[in-house]
Amino acid sequence: MKRTLDYYQALGHAPYRWAHYAEVPFQPLRKPLAESRVALITTAAPYDPAKGEQGPGAAYNASAKFYQVYSGAGSADHDLRISHIAYDRKHSPATDPNSWFPLPALRRAAAAGRIGGLTTRFHGAPTNRSQRHTIEIDAPELLRRLREDLADAVVLVPNCPICHQTCSLVARHLEAHGIPTVAMGCAKDIVEHCGVPRFLFSDFPLGNSAGLPHDTASQDAALELALRVLEMAPAPRTTVQSPQRWPADPAWKLDYSNIERIAPAEVARLRQEFTRQKEIAKELRVREQI
Question: What's an example of a GO molecular-function annotation for this chain (predicted)?
Fold first, then answer.
C-alpha cells in the first residue's frame, strides 16, 4: 500500500486514503456449492481494437478503461484484457487471460459438479479510485444484476491495486445484502486493510490472481482453493494463502511501483505520461456519463 502511494505521489497524484473498515459483513452459503449458482466479477476490460494497443506488454492505456458496470454471457468466450490497469508489466507476461479471468476454470468446475452451475452472465466492475462511486453506484448495480441472475455466490477477481480495493468494497456490499463472496487476489494488504469476508491470497505479481499463466492445473487449483474458502470460512476476515509459488526470480517483489528503483529521468517521463493518461481517462469518463 505505501509503495503504491509513494509511486503515484511521485508522479503527481494527490495523497490517497485506502478504504478501511473495522466491521465486516458475512453471509454463509445458503446451500452446498454443488447446488449453487456461482457468478464471476472481473476488473478486466473487453478488447476493443479501436482503443489502441492492449496486448501483452502494452503500456498503461487509459483509453481502454470503462466506467460503467458491464455484463457478458457466461456461456461464450471473451477477449478480456488488462492494459487499462496497473498490473505488474515487468514480471507478468499477460499472455494468458485465464490468469485474470477464470471463466473457463469455473466452467470446468461446473462440468465436474463442483458447483451447481454458472450464472448466465459474468460482470465487469469499474476500477474507480472514487470509493464513494464504487459504494453508491457500481456495487448496487452489480447487486441488482446478480439478483436478476439468481446468483447464490460470487467469485471476484481483481488485478491492480485499485482493483483490489474495488472488489473488496463490492464484496462487502454483496455480503451485506445476502450474497456470499470470495475474492482471489495478489494484494493482501489492500484487501485486508479494507476488510472482506473471504480472501484467497496468491503470492504472485499483480495480474495473476487466478493462477499461473498457461498452467491449467494451477488455475484449477487456485479456483478450487477459493471455493473451499467460500465453503469453509468460519467468520469474516478469513484469508487463506495459496501454497503455489511464482516460478521466476523473486525480485519481482522489490520492483513493482518502487520509486526508489526508478531512475530520475524515467520518473520524469512517467510523470508526463501519467498526466497525459489522466486527461484521456477524464475525457472518457465524461463521454460514458453522457
Answer: oxidoreductase activity, acting on X-H and Y-H to form an X-Y bond, with a disulfide as acceptor
Which among 158, 170, 176 is positioned nearest to 134, based on CA atoms?
170
| Pairwise CA distance, residues 31 & 164, whole Å | 27
What is the residue-wise DSSP string for 55-110? STTPPP-GGG---S-EEEETTS---EE-TTS---TTT-----GGGT--HHHHHHHH
Which DSSP symbol is given to 135?
A: I
Q: Which three cell numbers stand for residue 13?
A: 497524484
Model pLDDT for residues 38-94, shown as the tens digit of each residue: 999 999 999 999 999 999 989 999 999 999 999 999 999 999 999 999 999 999 999
Q: Has residue 290 got a pLDDT over 70?
A: no
Task: Tell me the C-alpha distance between 183 and 68, whole Å.
Answer: 20
Contacts 24+ apart (CB under 8 A), 255-264: 255/88, 255/90, 255/91, 256/3, 256/88, 256/90, 256/91, 256/205, 256/206, 257/3, 257/4, 257/6, 257/7, 257/8, 257/86, 257/161, 258/3, 258/7, 259/3, 259/6, 259/7, 259/10
pLDDT tens-digit map of 213-261:
999 999 999 999 999 999 999 999 999 999 999 998 888 899 998 999 9
Comparing CA positions, the residue from 281, 200, 276, 285 lying closest to residue 238 is 200
Collapsed DSSP state (helix, strand, coil) of residue 203 = coil
Q: Is the pTM of this model over 0.85?
A: yes
Average pLDDT of every residue of the chain? 94
Computed on alpha carbons and rounded to an integer, the radius of gyration of the chain in Å comes to: 18
